[in-house]
């Protein structure tokens, strides 16, 4: 599953440049309160393992779906107070402790698994998303649960904060899509929607050629602008939340925006190359986070 990777710890879904493991989830860091490091690690292990089942190795689509079903069965077992299967016993034992200690919402974990299943099914058939609503529906399962789980751990539950978190997480997911086009398209993962292609007169064949042209450049600029608007829609949350969580989120927002700066600078070249961040970019991100 695609996601963007930012300074630790990072929600979103997780975040610039991609790391070796599940990028949608933060890994406990110095910014994270010590009391939250264990639940974050348990959630990371859950998401990482499920992501590997959906994406790694050479298993067939049928086997991947069967493995994800078995993984979900273990989640439901521990949520009901039971024991998991031996296959992932240590992982689910740790998660069960944290679910009970922090009352983690099971539905958000189920939503993540739904997104992994959707990834397998969409990739298998080379399916495409019809429009932004369909793509954001995927983001609501693949990315938004991460932000909501983190807010839950920090005791933030009000509706405006949840909406802004969703906007940030969905924006991060979209940013990752647009920075990874050169990787995802050859793998049969099509996140540019049918409606966007039609609006800019771009065919699937043109995208699959991975060769920028005037129409594809205009299309990718529009996609970047949409992701930026979504990020800015959620940004007030980072300014409003106090303490460590506020600083974490400011870095997340600024990291996503900086990747969009790099995408825009390529002028459509993100179709054939992946933008990356250098040392100067991290300084820019930190400076902008302080200014927030």
From TrEMBL:
SUPFAM superfamilies: Terpenoid synthases (SSF48576). It holds the Pfam family SQS_PSY. InterPro entries: HSQ_synthase_HpnC, Isoprenoid_synthase_dom_sf, Squ/phyt_synthse, Trans_IPPS_bact-type. Gene3D superfamilies: Farnesyl Diphosphate Synthase. It comes from the Bacteria. This is Squalene synthase HpnC. The gene is hpnC.
């Amino acid at each position: 599953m695609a996601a963007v990777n930012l300074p630790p710890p990072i929600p979103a879904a997780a975040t610039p440049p991609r790391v070796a493991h599940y990028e949608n989830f933060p890994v406990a860091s110095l910014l994270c309160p010590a009391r939250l490091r264990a639940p974050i690690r348990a959630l990371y292990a859950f998401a990482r393992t499920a992501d590997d089942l959906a994406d790694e190795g050479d298993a067939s689509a049928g086997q991947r779906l069967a493995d994800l079903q078995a993984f979900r069965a273990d989640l439901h077992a521990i949520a009901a107070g039971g024991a998991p299967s031996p296959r992932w016993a240590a992982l689910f034992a740790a998660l069960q402790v944290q679910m009970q200690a922090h009352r983690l919402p099971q539905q958000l974990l189920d939503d993540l698994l739904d997104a992994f299943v959707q990834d397998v099914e969409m990739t298998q058939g080379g399916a495409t998303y019809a429009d932004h609503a369909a793509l954001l529906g995927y983001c609501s399962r693949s990315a938004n649960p991460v932000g909501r789980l983190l807010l839950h751990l920090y005791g933030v539950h009000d509706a405006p904060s949840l909406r802004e978190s969703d906007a940030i997480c969905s924006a991060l997911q979209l940013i990752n899509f647009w920075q990874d086009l050169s990787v995802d398209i050859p793998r049969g993962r099509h996140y540019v929607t049918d409606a966007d292609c039609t609006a800019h007169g771009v065919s699937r064949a043109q995208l699959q050629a991975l060769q920028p042209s005037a129409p594809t450049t205009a299309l990718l600029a529009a996609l970047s602008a949409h992701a930026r608007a979504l990020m800015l829609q959620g940004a007030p949350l980072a300014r409003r939340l106090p303490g460590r969580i506020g600083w974490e989120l400011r870095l997340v927002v600024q990291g996503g925006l900086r990747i969009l700066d790099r995408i825009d600078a390529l002028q459509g070249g993100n179709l054939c190359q992946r933008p990356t961040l250098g040392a100067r970019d991290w300084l820019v991100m930190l400076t902008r986070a302080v200014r927030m």
